[in-house]
Specification:
With 138 residues, the protein is of the alpha/beta class. The protein has one domain: Rossmann fold (3-Layer(aba) Sandwich), CATH 3.40.50. The chain has helices at 7-15, 35-51, 55-71, 79-86, 95-111, 122-130, and strands at 2-5, 29-33, 73-75, 116-118, 134-136. A five-stranded parallel sheet has the order 3-2-1-4-5, with helices on both faces. α2 (35-51) runs antiparallel to α3. The longest helix is centred in the N-terminal third of the chain and has 17 residues, at 35-51.
């Protein structure tokens, strides 16, 4: 399976949280926006400040984000993605989720390959389904 991964999927893996993606081992190729790295690292920094994660755990989790991002096909957030994310969508989405959906849709068109949206976010899942993507994770 080729899966577009949003940050909710990556963070649950990196943080070892409950409800991790059941289909994780079925992913043969992972695709993500460059935005995922930023979102994950910002979340780790918030956790450090709010929950007092010690330095060792923080470093381990940051390294896990970097390793995972190295294994993914990263799509840069360029003009085409931003233009697509600015267009009307089939259901309400915030800016970051609109960028994720636009990235997945453009990647699918460019590569002419089926891609599954992997997310734990209900709003993104709904918009992805309405846009013709199969969804896992919710």
């Amino acid at each position: 399976m080729i899966a577009y991964l949003d940050s909710s999927v990556v963070l649950r893996i990196v943080l070892g949280q409950r409800g991790r993606l059941k289909e994780w081992k079925q992913i043969e190729e992972g695709v993500a926006s460059a935005l995922v790295g930023v979102e994950c690292l910002r979340t780790l920094d918030r956790l450090r400040l709010r929950e007092g994660i010690d330095d060792e755990k923080l470093v381990d989790r940051r390294e896990a984000v970097y390793r995972l991002m190295d294994e993914l096909c990263i799509v840069e957030t360029g003009r085409a993605v931003l233009d697509r994310a600015s267009m009307p969508l089939p259901s309400p989405l915030g800016t970051l989720d609109a960028i994720h959906l636009a990235t997945a849709l453009l990647w699918r068109e460019r590569e002419a390959a089926d891609v599954v949206m992997a997310t734990h976010d209900a709003a993104l899942a709904l918009a992805a389904r309405a846009s013709g993507l199969r969804v896992v994770g919710v």
